[in-house]
Amino acid sequence: MADNHFELFGLPVGYQVDERELARRHRELMSACHPDRFAQGSAQERRLAVQKSAALNEALKVLRDPIARARYLLELAGVSTEEETDTVMDPAFLVQQMEWREALEAGHEDPAQMASLTQEWAALMAAKEQELAGQLAAGAAGHAQARRLVRELQFLRRFGDELDEARLEI
Amino acid sequence: MALLQISEPGQSPMPHARRLAAGIDLGTTNSLIATVDGGIAQVLADEAGRVLLPSVVRFLSGGEVAVGNVAQAAEVADPLNTIASVKRLMGRGRDEVGALPYALADGEGMVRLKTAGGDKTPVEVSAHILMALKARAEKTLGGTLTGVVITVPAYFDEAQRQATKDAARLAGLNVLRLLSEPTAAAIAYGLDRQPEGLYCVYDLGGGTFDVSLLRLSQGVFEVLATGGDARLGGDDFDAVVAAELEARGQPAASAESARALLRAARASREQLTTQDTVSIDVPGVFAGTLSRGELNALIDPLIERTLGPCRRVLKDAGVRVADIAEVVLVGGATRTPRVRERVESLFRKAPLYDIDPDQVVAVGAARQADLLVGNAGAADMLLLDVIPLSLGIEIMGGLVERIIPRNAPIPTTRAQEFTTYKDGQTALAVHVVQGERDLVADCRSLARFTLRGIPPMAAGAARIRVTYQVDADGLLSVSARELLSGAESEITVKPSYGLTDGDIERMLSESMAHAAHDAAEREWREQVVEADRMIDAVEAAVAADGRLLAEGEGEVIAAQAQALRAARDKRDVAAIRRAIEALDRVSAAFAARRMDEGLRRAMTGHSIQEFR
Asked: Which of B57, B89, B152, B350 would staple B156 via disulfide (CB 3.0–4.6 Å)?
């Protein structure tokens, strides 16, 4: 029916997505095709309902997450982020990641150190996301940089998960 | 409706007769059934006026089975044949259930209990509880139930959900939906009529703990995150109290004495809800008193174990304590004052508990069942749920590759491509596990899927696409196709702690619920029901959206529907099945166009709103 996740929700293809609007449209579309709407229907209808609502959930998952959304936009443009296979990263970025990991290791029981590390991490996340938005807005010229930023943001996200885990333990 | 037509071939049911639907809370300690009548949900009582059916089943020699209060009365005298808290054993293996006061049969897979009535799986035990509830409802309501909604802990994994659904099938119930208990509670509290907001449901039952975070917005109830502990509940409170009493007195010397001790522990815990001290006397074990302060100290570590999942759920949903509009308490164990205190201090908000915590889940399930069978008129509420635990597959080195993360909205699908590593390889095995850990050994094994029928090719040439689908009940199915040849793979499923279709067939033909009909009769009935649903659905679709038919398509569909109708009236199961498949095939494209049209309409309505 729709060629891509954006079209499924009737949204313009692009990095800027109004998350409230996205969530609202998801709920409206779900109301039309959720399996519960076909609880008395035939096996065929129930099967279709499961497929359609699964497709909507998949599209929602990609579009509401800035990193997944950027990765998907690049994919639509024929650019693969190859996060699984290509492990070459900017050395300066990697060095910083290693330093942060060490700081987390050393300071995970100290709330003050954790807070400052979290602050530093959040600032870098925000800066990179903003940079990513700019590169994606530049079209094909920005793809190479956008690809690098998606890969770095994925790294940063994993570090953020570790920070969260450490905070939960405190 | 179709079911009524079969059971009473001579009498055509009223065209707009109300369909009988019910909500079932299949609990660890007690089970309930509720229904909606005239817009009001009510819990159904037995002849003695009791609404709680103790989830206790006693198997006697000679095949006789007692359920509920009668069985509970024999708990102390006949502990080995009287099965309580069976919910904790659903979808569990022998190595996972710890020490049990029952005799266990040897063997792999789901645990089996040795009783005077033969070896029983937890699924069969639960089926007896469901049959008792079904009989109660059908007697009270005076008709056959069209369908039921059964609640499960939100934190139940796939094997536990499948076991619950299998139990319903054995009991002869049509399951409209497995609904998570906290969501049911939220519906019962009428939160679906509240303004938008975030609601936290803290559900501490007899055997399980669940916490769910729900967002309500424009009639859509969305589970944002769910967490809990499938092996923590009021029973554990009783166990620590019992252990304390033994420590102060003498260890229980027999199974009977142990049961008596547990009952005394529960009774004292319940009394300490309103009293400051209780006196306890268990002959041969302990005689003395227990204070509320002492109880609190004993159960505090257990309550503490519920707070971690609460914090995790908030984190998973990216929500702060201050964002929560209401906290709802569910489950008998939340009557314990200490639980209320600790929840209030965590959420900094007095929780709601004005609906009977034992009935609230069944009431919510009844309302959802009423909606799903179409009694509630135009559907004005929709529930969107999530998968509680991540699904993964085993990869090299005993590691888990995550395929669907926890708290992903369901239904959901995920496809993966595999290739062969040997020339001419025609089969492939996939081991699916559920859990959050990185090692297979630390997750729960769900099932092993073996794909066969891969066309022989050179190693690495085949491209096999495996699709995992999780439906709205949280149940997994797997399909596979070789992409180059298009060959659909045959899949055989070996559930790790579940029952195969063959097991269920065997149990069905043995079970009392179906004693009147043989297997062929039942299969024929099932096919006729499906045939009628199919004919009704297709004809209603053509009548409503005939303009979406391609040229000549309507005639082909009508002819095939007629052929199915003809097959339906003969007692040939295979012919009916073939005719259903044929009608499915010729109407599939039309059905897909209708679904897309429905989605387009939902979107169009949206743009109109926007331009206004």
From this structure: B152
Chain Cα centroid distance, residue B427: 32
Q: Locate A64 and state its tokens.
A: 């509401």
Task: Give every strand in the sheet of B65-67, ordered side by side.
Answer: B65-67, B56-59, B82-84
CATH 2.60.34.10 fits B391-498, yes or no: yes
The residue-averaged pLDDT of B127-153 equals 95
Q: Are B50 and B67 in contact (CB under 8 A)?
A: no
Mutation target among B173, B314, B382 for the A interface, most CBs of A within 10 A:
B382
Residue B38: which pLDDT band, with cuts at 50, 70 and 90? confident
Residue position matching structure tokens 């009423």: B370
Question: Would you identify the CATH topology of the domain A5-64?
Answer: Helix Hairpins (1.10.287)
Domain A91-169 - what CATH class? mainly alpha
- Which stretches does DSSP call E strand in B267-365? 277-282, 286-291, 326-330
Say whether B220 and A30 touch across the interface (CB within 8 A). yes
pLDDT tens-digit series, residues B216-238? 877 788 888 888 887 899 989 99
Min CA distance, B471 vs chain A (Å)? 6
Per-residue pLDDT of B478-517, as tens digits, reads 888 888 888 777 787 888 888 888 888 778 777 655 555 5
Please state which of the ranges A13-17, A66-70, B37-41 shows the lowest mean pLDDT.
B37-41
Alpha carbon distance B192, B216 (integer Å): 7
ipTM surpasses cut 0.90: no
What are B56's strand-pairing partners? Answer: B84
Helices A143-169 and A91-107, packing angle to 10 deg: 10
Is the pLDDT at B6 greater than 50? The verdict is no
At A1 the pLDDT is 54
Active-site residue flag, B238: no
Domain layout of chain A by residue ranges = 5-64, 91-169
How far A113 CA lies from chain B's nearest CA (Å)? 20
pLDDT at B518: 65
Residue of B nearest to A27 (CA): B220
What CATH architecture applies to the domain B517-611? Answer: Up-down Bundle (1.20)
Q: Taking CB atoms and an 8 Å limit, are A45 and B537 in contact across chains? A: yes
What CATH architecture applies to the domain B234-297? Answer: Alpha-Beta Complex (3.90)
Q: What is the pLDDT of residues B294-317, one digit of tens each?
A: 999 999 999 999 999 999 899 888
Average pLDDT for chain B: 87
Domain B2-180+361-376 superfamily per CATH: ATPase, nucleotide binding domain (3.30.420.40)
Set of chain B residues whose Cβ sits within 8 Å of the Cβ of A33: 595, 598-599
Across the interface, whether the CB atoms of B533 and A40 are under 8 A apart is answered: yes
Catalytic residue among B75, B87, B358, B473: B87
Strand partners, B273: none
Q: Report the distance separating Cα B340 and Cα B391, nearest Å.
A: 33
Tell me the C-alpha distance between B102 and B113, whole Å. Answer: 7
Residues B234-244: what's their mean pLDDT?
Answer: 93
More confident residue, B608 or B585: B585
For the stretch B425-481, pLDDT in tens is: 888 888 999 998 999 999 999 998 888 888 888 888 888 899 999 999 999 988 888
Active site residue B181: yes
Interface contacts (A, B; CB < 8 Å): 117
Residues 6 or more apart whose CB falls under 8 angstroms from that of A73 comprise A13, A14, A15, A136, A146
Measured between beta carbons, the chain B residues lying within 8 angstroms of A27 are 217-218, 220, 222, 382, 384
The whole-number pLDDT of residue B610 equals: 44
Determine how β-strand B464-470 pairs with β-strand B476-482.
Answer: antiparallel
What residue segments make up the domains of chain B, in order of their start? 2-180+361-376, 234-297, 391-498, 517-611
d(CA B555, CA A55) in angstroms, rounded, equals 31
Nearest CB to B311 within list A24, A54, A168: A168
